[in-house]
Amino acid sequence: MGTELLNQRVSILWMDPQGFINAELADVAPAECVTEGTVARIDTETIVIRSSLYTGTETGDYTALPLGCITKIDIIS
Fold it and tell me: What is the DSSP-derived secondary structure letter of residue 67?
């Protein structure tokens, strides 16, 4: 994954780590999750997705996802 994704609108399928207390072992697993937005930053460990942005600023809503949790990235046209 590299800078070719920067500023692209994407849909990311990723595995969300889960914590379980007093649970059956068979029920313990990460949860599949989808995040959509624009790639604001990407480095060797993390991709940051922007879902909203205040006009003329870098202030907005962001999700930072560890690359190791990502199973698929699709560019949304």
Answer: G
The pLDDT > 90 percentage for the chain reads: 94
Structural domain harbouring 22? 3-75
Predicted TM-score of the model (pTM): 0.88
* b/e 10-33 (16+ beta carbons within 10 angstroms → b): bebebeeeeeeeeeeeeeeeeeee
Q: How many structural domains are present in the chain? A: 1
Q: What is the pLDDT of residue 2?
A: 72
Can you tell me the distance from the alpha carbon of 61 to that of 48, in angstroms, rounded to the nearest whole number? 10
Is 42 a residue whose pLDDT tops 80? yes
Secondary structure class of 35 (helix, strand, coil): strand
Length of the chain: 77
- For the domain that residue 64 is a member of, what is the CATH number? 2.30.30
